[in-house]
TrEMBL record:
GO biological process: RNA catabolic process
Residue ranges of the TM segments: none
Domain of life: Eukaryota
Organism this protein belongs to: Cymbomonas tetramitiformis
Gene3D superfamilies, sorted: 2.40.128.680
Record-level GO cellular component terms: ribonuclease H2 complex
InterPro entries assigned: RNase_H2_suC
Name of this chain's protein: Uncharacterized protein
């Protein structure tokens, strides 16, 4: 098997398996080696602070004794956010399945407060930039720009 075969993935999108209701999605700077159910809301309790940076309220939480600062980000217009689960059956092909959908996510950082210059907010800005860069331009628009 060559590298191209080893990296094949398949994405399954089916809305009939998506979790209903508003989902709170968090992107935390750690790896959790468990896929089971856990009483997260009992231990992970984010709170809004009085601090506002770049128009976003800074959130504060702790996870396993580590202090975290976070901010909420909306999914760019025209896009959907999905929580995906991977599975690797006996074959080498990884299958990704959409489990739930979200409209915003909270990203967390250690030891620093979130700002608009963080990687995730900057990456999400590319969605709007790409939409503008690839939008069709009419002849009238070109003529107006030339004047």
């Amino acid at each position: 098997m060559d590298c191209a075969e080893a990296r094949r993935s398949h994405i399954q999108f089916s809305t009939d398996k998506l979790t209903e209701g508003k989902l709170q999605t968090h992107l935390v700077p750690c790896a959790i080696k468990s896929n089971g159910v856990a009483p997260i809301s009992q231990y992970f309790r984010p709170e809004a602070t009085d601090q506002v940076i770049d128009g976003k309220t800074v959130l504060h939480a702790a996870l396993r004794g580590r202090e975290l600062n976070g901010a909420r980000l909306g999914v760019p217009d025209g896009y959907n956010g999905y929580v995906m689960r991977s599975s690797q059956p006996a074959s080498s092909e990884t299958t990704w399945t959409a489990e739930s959908q979200f409209e915003e996510l909270t990203y967390w950082l250690h030891d620093v407060v979130p700002t608009a210059s963080d990687l995730l907010p900057r990456a999400l800005e590319w969605a709007e930039l790409a939409k503008e860069a690839h939008a069709p331009i009419s002849a009238a628009d070109v003529e107006a720009m030339m004047e």
